[in-house]
Specification:
The chain has 465 residues and is α+β, with helices and mostly antiparallel strands. It has a domain of 273 residues: 2-Layer Sandwich (HIT family, subunit A). The strands form two sheets. A ten-stranded antiparallel sheet has the order 4-5-6-8-7-12-13-11-10-9, sandwiched between helices. A four-stranded mixed sheet has the order 1-2-3-14.
């Protein structure tokens, strides 16, 4: 009897000890897993990862300071108009006495990462002689080729990176055979004048909108796009057939008419709220017709993905700076660096992180007359002063009847290189890695200001012809 109790007691205590061991092991394992696992995402992080869901954030407002104020107050009058001086300008902003300058430095730190990288190049004698011809025989430029300084600018919120190396402008170019870009475009326009479908838009284009109709202004008209990319896909056609003869007023009218048509259609089809415009000029830029035409897509739910990336950037910025607007900060940051030009309430800037050489932004609270004209003047700058007759642009107009995640009126204009070149301006480098640029944004904004001062009445530079 005593022996049976002893065996039963032993079995009980052994079972209890085993159970306690299992419980302890489980608790310790769960604790270790929790410590090693990343913390759960915060509510703001989850909101940032939810597609097409935005709060109502601070509204865009243009700079309330003159451009000279930033140089005098924040940079001590030491602005040096060269992108290679970007890091030095940022340091001046960080150490400036005025609190507004230090706020600008904080915005720039949020928006961009700036890195200076160096590379040395050793050339054997035969190749050295050839490279010397690329730089016009200049020994000073050869020293820059041997010891290169490459500036990297990364947009932290959009995750777009730019490498700026001025010596890349010396790369050998494939020779362009035949007439100049201007001569080729003129010949193509005159050859097709009057015979193209867009010249005969009353009979050779689709009706547009709901109900199907014609939508016109004295200088342009809206027609239906026959092979659509969206439910509300239209075309704005200029009454002028040749891009070379299209005036600043004509360009501005096309954008203004697109905005009017978008409002008209949204009143008839309330679900269409997000207007996006796309405009390619020249075959090298992908234009299917020489006749000036703007694609208008009026979409439900959200903008096209390119502009949605900017909305996502604005959302992330608002998480860090809840009282400020991303686009206001973007414009003011470029103003502080001396890269803006203004027309009334609209502001244009030469981007420090261009997708290709000489990218120009135009920003305004509304797509008003200042916005449309400044955009048209930016195009005139690209064509007549920078000599880039082929170019692409896109505009995002403020959403209709949608206050959440609101964009101001935005335009991005990108030149597309030499129209006569058989080589594309957009390679695997730009598509998958980063944008390699050689044209300094300060040169771009200098020509933009010149065009605005002359009210668009500028002649093409001799190099552009």
């Amino acid at each position: 009897m005593w022996r049976q109790r002893t065996l039963a007691q032993r079995w009980f205590w052994r079972t209890l000890a085993t159970a306690l061991l299992i419980v302890c092991t489980t608790v310790l394992t769960m604790t270790a897993v929790q410590e090693l696992s990343p913390p759960p995402p915060s509510r703001s992080t989850l909101a940032a990862l939810t597609p097409f869901q935005y709060p109502v954030w601070s509204e865009y407002s243009p700079p309330d300071r003159e451009d000279d104020w930033y140089n005098a107050t924040c940079l001590g009058g030491q602005l040096r108009p060269a992108l290679t001086e970007l890091a030095a300008h940022l340091e001046m902003l960080r150490t400036a006495e005025h609190p507004e300058c230090r706020t600008l430095a904080g915005w720039l730190n949020t928006l961009f990462t700036v890195e200076q990288r160096e590379a040395n190049v050793t050339l054997p004698a035969p190749f050295l002689a050839k490279v010397l011809t690329w730089v016009g025989g200049s020994e000073q430029l050869m020293d820059i080729v041997r010891h290169q300084r490459i500036l990297h600018v990364t947009n932290n919120l959009v995750l777009h990176e730019v490498a700026f190396n001025p010596v890349r402008a010396f790369r050998p170019q494939l020779p362009s055979a035949g007439p100049s870009a201007r001569e080729q475009l003129h010949a193509l326009a005159e050859e097709t004048r009057g015979s193209c479908d867009f010249c005969q838009w009353r009979t050779m284009t689709a009706l547009v909108g709901e109900p199907p109709a014609r939508f016109e202004s004295p200088l342009s008209t809206v027609v239906g796009n026959t092979l659509k990319l969206d439910g509300g896909h239209a075309l704005v056609l200029s009454r002028e057939h040749s891009p070379l003869r299209l005036t600043v007023e004509g360009r501005a009218d096309m954008v203004a008419l697109a905005e009017r048509w978008s409002r008209d259609q949204q009143s008839r089809r309330p679900q269409l709220r997000f207007p996006t415009l796309m405009w390619d000029v020249g075959q090298h830029a992908g234009a299917s017709q020489v006749h000036p035409h703007v694609h208008v897509m009026l979409s439900p739910a959200h903008y096209s993905a390119g502009w949605e990336r900017q909305r996502r950037a604005a959302l992330l910025f608002s998480e860090i700076w809840p009282q400020d607007n991303y686009f206001s900060a973007l414009v003011r940051a470029h103003a502080a660096l001396g890269l803006t030009a203004r027309l009334g309430a609209a502001v244009a800037f030469a981007a420090v992180d261009p997708v290709l050489d000489a990218e120009i932004w135009v920003v305004s609270a509304e797509p008003d007359a200042d916005f449309t004209r400044l955009y048209a003047l930016a195009v005139a700058t690209v064509e007549r002063r920078l000599g880039r007759l082929c170019h692409s642009s896109s505009l995002a107009l403020p959403a209709l009847a949608e206050p959440a995640g609101r964009l101001p009126a935005l335009a991005r204009l990108v030149p597309r290189g030499d129209c006569t070149s058989v080589r594309t301006d957009f390679s695997a480098i730009e598509m998958f890695a980063l944008s390699a640029i050689a044209l300094d944004p300060y040169e771009v904004v200098r020509e933009l200001r010149y065009t605005i001062e002359r009210n668009g009445e500028v002649q093409p530079r001799s190099a552009a012809a």
